Amino acid sequence: MDHGAHNMAARCSMHMLWNTQIIDTCVVFSQWHIRSNLQFFFSFLAIVALGMLYEYLRVFSRDFDKRIAVKLRIQNARRTPLTTSGWSSPKRHGDDTKKTGLLNGSRVTRKQGFAVPPLYRAMRAVLYGASVGLSFFLMLVFMTYNAYLIFAVILGAGAGHYILGDTIEPNGLADKGMACH
Q1: What is the value of pTM for the model shown?
Q2: 11: helix, coil or strand?
Q3: Taking the CA of residue 118 as centre, how many other CA atoms within 13 Å lie in the half-sphere pointing to its CB?
């Protein structure tokens, strides 16, 4: 009996429970099919690198925002500040008439900070999108429920934070840690 005509190709196995399976594990895509211990080792290293890349993107985005803020602060330093009364022009005494409209000198409530030019907004949006996309990808790796791959994500995030988190700002807000969004 010849069974050579049967194609017994290995298939991805998906577990919805905690597991430690190495062979026939698929990571996010069916094309990322692990068929050997060596492939698993390199996949583990790739996932650690992705976790570190996520941390790098997060730190780079924060530093990029700081550089933009400093540049905008310098550019806007020449603006006329508001008077102590909170009006953009001195209030005239004896003027009892109420004026409405945009040019009456009244203070308009708006967001704090500086308007970000379109080029910088686009660059910030690309960095944000890449960070969110990578975080969702790592979430999908986590959802393989494979203990080794989960450890790889955590190890990458921790190593990236250790390497890139060498300074702290005492008056700064706490950074958002690794999260899907």
Answers
A1: 0.72
A2: coil
A3: 0
